[in-house]
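Q: What structure does this chain adopt?
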Amino acid sequence: MTDHVPLRTCIVCRHRAKKTELFRFVADEAGFLFYDAKNNKPGRGFYLCRTGNCLERYIRIPKKYSTKFRLREIVPESIKQLKDYI
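A:
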């Protein structure tokens, strides 16, 4: 019997992968976006690829990808945290 591995989709390129292979962002109550390094924060979120330029594409035009999440902006500290992690 094989174990079921849930897949998540990058909102930029639509690539499907295990959630451990993607970056997760979560919106707080005010609509601001935070990088969820441990993949355990509650709330509405989305995933971006760890490889490729999906993060850069998202940062350039976040409203194109985040409209359905009702997100206002990416908190600058979360982008710095993500760049340091990479």
